[in-house]
Write a structure and sequence with these properties.
Blueprint (H helix, E strand, L loop, with lengths): L11 H8 L5 H10 L5 E4 L5 E6 H13 L7 E4 L2 E6 L3 H11 L19 E3 L4 E4 L10 E5 L11 H15 L22
Helix pairs in contact: 1-2, 3-5, 4-5
Length: 193
């Protein structure tokens, strides 16, 4: 069971924070006033960076962040990916931290721990589509943790690294027994005398 908060709509202060990422915040706010269910494309790198993870893995990261860590900043789901809003600079720093920890984009090669699926880091020069502030546009575009203040707390690269590694390790099932061969005879030895 997840302990992630379920704030599904953006407050007016949260909308102001999101709009501040763009060059024309008042125009973005006016668009949302006229069409509150309209998603919008916002630039990254100034107000926030975004780390985009595949749906299930992103949910695992989010569960780790809320269950065992400090929580998260705003989080959205868009077209099957989880968008974790992070501190500016995270998109630049996270890939190098993953490489340094030998997780990289392909994960560890030792087979004892799971590989990280592709994490897409959006920073300066990138833009992301964010869900509408009011309500949802279906399951393909919605807020999981909506921004509710003008200055929300945003996790940095170290927290995202920690959450990704924990999520990958939790997904791995380690067995002391080798995989069974398809044509092997299997005997129940638990009833030996």
């Amino acid at each position: 069971m997840s302990s992630t908060p379920h704030v599904t709509h953006v407050t007016s202060a949260g909308a102001a924070w999101l709009a501040s990422a763009g060059a024309y915040p008042r125009s973005t706010l006016a668009l949302w006033e006229e069409r509150p269910k309209a998603p919008v494309v916002l630039p990254c790198g100034h107000a926030f960076d975004v780390v985009s993870a595949p749906g299930i893995f992103g949910r695992r990261m989010l569960d780790r962040m809320w269950g065992e860590g400090p929580g998260s900043g705003p989080v959205a789901e868009y077209r099957g990916r989880i968008l974790l809003f992070t501190a500016p600079g995270t998109a630049q720093r996270l890939p190098s931290l993953l490489e340094w920890e030998e997780w990289g984009t392909r994960g560890r090669a030792d087979g004892r721990t799971g590989a990280l699926p592709p994490l897409l880091c959006h920073g300066t020069g990138d833009a992301v589509t964010v869900p509408a502030p009011a309500g949802t546009d279906g399951p393909a575009s919605r807020w999981l943790v909506a921004p509710d203040t003008r200055q929300p707390w945003l996790p940095g690269p170290e927290i995202l690294l920690w959450a990704a590694v924990r999520a990958a390790r939790a997904a791995v099932r380690i067995s002391i027994f080798p995989p069974a061969e398809l044509d092997a005879n299997v005997y129940d030895v638990s009833r030996r005398r």
